[in-house]
């Protein structure tokens, strides 16, 4: 640095400007548009790396005069004597690369594929995309999907695709998709009417479209036994908690048998239900002899089963 500094005190630099030049990045570097002549090669290389302004966008140009360039060079090297030759101004054009619409769709599709791992998902492009023109050479950019939704749902979905130029986001293209999410679920094999008893035999497993407008989660088959239809239900319907009536099997204050299981050992004692619940619900019971409270599963109107190995 000391040697370079001493050379700057006595060295002049000549900048030769053409009438037109093309640049490959978002910033204009002097060495891309002009010839730099100096007695010291190290100084010449340093001058060539000076950024002298923004590059025009694809489809546009920019005129740079030698006095504008001289101001930027003087800021970078205040002790250098500058000489300009060639043209008094240079018309700057960007080198342009065209990113095809197919490439943008492929990037969005890859993002959807990554988000669909372990799911049964279909997605179809619903928007028309145009090719995108970016400044620079082909190897200067890359595409990156930027889906910010943690889970996929049935419906319309926007998948942003970022165009990165030299590692920085240059532009974001928004693609839109129609998404369908499917799942294998138990559904009614036939129509049922309000008040009809429900059992597992009335259900079969089918591939079902998950619609976020549907209310509630499917009722587990273990909870269907003993319930009745709360309203008329159609064939093929996924049954939710709002669709069934599950009668209360045990009410708070009822005397119950408490079956306590630890591994292969089973014992029955008398207890009192603290909460109410239907079959297969979890309720809290208090043992009459010890006063200990335990969480168990309602097996009938008289029995609560407690699995000590599963109790937390």
Task: Summarize the entry for a quick read.
With 312 residues, the protein is mainly beta. The protein has helices at 2-8, 30-33, 41-48, 66-76, 101-115, and strands at residues 12-17, 20-23, 27-29, 35-38, 51-54, 62-65, 81-86, 89-94, 96-99, 120-125, 132-135, 141-145, 155-165, 168-188, 203-209, 228-229, 244-245, 255-262, 265-273, 282-287, 293-298, 303-307. It contains 5 helices and 22 strands.
Characteristic terms for this protein:
312 residues; disordered N terminus; 4 domains; mainly beta; 14% helix; five-stranded antiparallel β-sheet; eubacterium ventriosum atcc fold; five-stranded mixed barrel; 43% strand; 5 helices; elongated
Task: Give structural notes.
Keywords: Cell projection, Cilium, Flagellum, Signal. This is Flagellar basal body P-ring biosynthesis protein FlgA. Residues 186-306 form the Flagella basal body P-ring formation protein FlgA SAF domain. It comes from Engelhardtia mirabilis. The chain folds into 4 domains: 2-94, eubacterium ventriosum atcc fold (Sandwich); 98-181; 187-243, no CATH class; 255-307, Roll (SH3 type barrels). Helices cover 14% and strands 43% of the residues. The protein has helices at residues 2-8, 30-33, 41-48, 66-76, 101-115, and strands spanning 12-17, 20-23, 27-29, 35-38, 51-54, 62-65, 81-86, 89-94, 96-99, 120-125, 132-135, 141-145, 155-165, 168-188, 203-209, 228-229, 244-245, 255-262, 265-273, 282-287, 293-298, 303-307. The strands form 7 sheets. Strands 10, 12, 13, 14 and 15 form a 5-stranded antiparallel sheet that branches. A 5-stranded mixed β-barrel has the order 18-19-20-21-22. A 3-stranded mixed sheet has the order 4-1-7. β19 and β20 form a beta hairpin. The two termini are 70 Å apart.
């Amino acid at each position: 640095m000391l040697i370079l500094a001493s050379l700057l005190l006595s060295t002049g630099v000549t900048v030769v400007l053409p009438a037109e030049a093309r640049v490959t990045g978002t910033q204009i570097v002097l060495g891309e548009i002009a010839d730099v002549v100096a007695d010291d090669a190290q100084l010449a290389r340093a001058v060539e790396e000076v950024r002298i302004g923004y590059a025009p966008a694809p489809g546009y140009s920019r005129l740079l005069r030698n006095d504008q360039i001289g101001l930027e060079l003087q800021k970078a090297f205040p002790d250098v004597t500058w000489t300009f030759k060639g043209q008094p101004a240079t018309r700057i054009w960007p080198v342009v690369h065209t990113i095809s619409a197919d490439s943008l769709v492929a990037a969005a599709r890859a993002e959807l594929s990554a988000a669909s791992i372990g799911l049964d998902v279909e997605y179809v492009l619903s928007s028309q995309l145009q090719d995108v023109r970016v400044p620079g050479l082909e190897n200067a950019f890359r595409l990156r999907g930027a889906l910010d939704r943690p889970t996929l749902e049935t419906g319309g979905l926007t998948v942003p695709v970022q165009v990165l130029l030299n590692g920085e986001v240059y532009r974001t293209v928004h693609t839109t998709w129609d998404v369908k999410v499917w799942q294998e679920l138990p559904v009614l094999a036939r129509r049922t009417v309000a008040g009809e008893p429900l059992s597992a035999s009335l259900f079969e497993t089918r591939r079902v479209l998950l619609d976020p407008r549907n209310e509630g989660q499917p009722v587990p088959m273990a909870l269907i036994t003993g319930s009745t239809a709360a309203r008329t239900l159609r064939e093929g319907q996924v049954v939710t908690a709002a669709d069934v009536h599950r009668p209360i099997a045990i009410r708070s204050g009822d005397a119950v048998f408490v079956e306590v299981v630890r591994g292969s050992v089973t014992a029955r004692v008398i207890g009192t239900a603290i909460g109410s619940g239907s079959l297969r619900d979890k309720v809290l019971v208090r043992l009459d002899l010890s006063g200990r409270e335990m969480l168990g599963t309602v097996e009938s109107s008289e029995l609560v089963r407690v699995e000590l190995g599963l109790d937390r």
